[in-house]
Design goal:
The complex is a heterodimer. Chain A is mostly helical. In chain A, 74% of the residues lie in helices and 0% in strands. Chain A contains 13 helices and no strands. In chain A, 46% of the residues are buried. Chain B is mostly helical. Chain B is 77% helix and 0% strand. The radius of gyration of chain B is 20 Å and the shape is extended. Classes of the chains: A mainly alpha, B mainly alpha.
Chain lengths: 237, 106
């Protein structure tokens, strides 16, 4: 079958590109599953949430929300803030994903940070089918994440040692992502806006209800300071 | 939370995620982004992750308990290891290990 051959050829090209993600998602996904398990969620939770949400940072935050009082508005706000960056991935991929036919909805659904950066960076050779290559990269990354978090949820049960403090993995991950943003953009002012707004709102509104005010605050400050921030961002990426 | 509330919370997260991934393909068919959108694209991620770091630490009690010392030391380790190797997995693993260790020692 010519069609199968085309798909398989694209898979052979795409798979090696996803190996670093296999390692990364393997580690973070396992930890996510173990973390959920340590909080008393069965492996079905990390598995299903990974399947339908498929967004690392947000899944950790949502776990926290699941443990607090029910607040769908906060869930909406924090999801929007955490996931807003995807808007810019989409804008960047408009051309690349044009003409991918039935694969397009899948490419969009699976467009996590990692799949975006691989598909954005890769110049697919002429003898490899482009849409298939994009699709394999996206599906492989998604399956690594789902498998790792399910496995984490399962082996969380088997780990005999007590795991108090494993939740720090989320803090550490956000610290690293923040640091990467600061290093890559060679600026600390935008990160400072987020941290200071959050600290001030935390002091005013308390730990249970400071997220929505913080998000409004950040949006307002970024809009008000648009001119100076845009000027200072001249050397950024 | 009831099961229904869990389902709603997760569904909100899932729907927002899909929405942010799909929206540009419906809105910007020709590929020109409004400038204010592009501006937020540059400045929002760092601000959001700054906020999330504070969010993770919201339960830290500086006046009581361990006074936030495990958190502080572990974060310094994360930053140090990351500046040294710039390897996400390593930084996260070392930081979490240090934190778990400190909780047991302090």
């Amino acid at each position: 079958m010519a069609k199968t051959r085309v798909a398989l050829r694209a898979l052979r090209y795409a798979f090696p590109k996803t190996l670093p993600i296999l390692a990364g998602f393997g580690f973070v996904g396992l930890t996510y599953g173990i973390y959920m398990q340590s909080l008393g969620f069965s492996f079905l939770y990390p598995m299903l949430i990974s399947i339908i949400v498929f967004g690392g940072s947000l899944q950790f935050v949502i776990t926290q929300l699941l443990l607090s009082a029910y607040d769908p508005l906060a869930a909406l706000g924090v999801s929007l803030m955490v996931q807003a960056r995807h808007l810019f991935y989409g804008v960047s991929m408009l051309d690349k994903y044009r003409g991918t036919g039935w694969k397009k909805p899948f490419l969009i659904f699976f467009m996590c940070d990692e799949s975006f950066s691989i598909n954005y960076d890769t110049d697919v050779p002429d003898d490899v089918d482009r849409p298939w290559c994009y699709l394999w990269v996206s599906v492989l990354n998604w399956s690594y994440w789902v498998l790792a978090s399910t496995l984490g949820g399962l082996i969380g049960l088997l780990i005999p040692v007590e795991l108090t403090g494993i939740d720090f993995v989320m803090t550490a991950m956000f610290v690293v992502i923040l640091l990467e943003q600061i290093l890559k953009q060679r600026r600390i002012d935008t990160a400072a806006v987020g941290m200071i707004a959050a600290l001030v709102c935390l002091l005013i509104f308390g730990a249970d209800s400071f997220m929505v005010p913080t998000m409004l605050c950040i949006a307002a400050v970024l809009l008000l300071l648009r001119r100076p921030l845009e000027k200072r961002g001249g050397q950024s990426l | 939370m009831t099961t229904l509330q869990v389902v709603v919370t997760v569904a909100v997260a899932a729907l927002v995620t899909v929405l942010t991934r799909a929206l540009p393909f419906f809105v910007f068919r020709e590929g020109h982004t409004p400038r204010v959108v592009a501006y937020f694209g540059r400045v929002l991620p760092a601000a959001v992750f700054g906020m999330l770091v504070v969010y993770c630490l919201r339960g830290v009690d500086i006046l009581g308990g361990t006074h936030g010392i495990p958190e502080l030391v572990a974060i310094l380790c994360v930053v140090g290891v990351h500046l040294w190797r710039r390897h996400m997995m390593l930084s996260v693993a070392v930081g979490t290990a240090v934190y778990m260790l400190m909780l047991r020692l302090l």
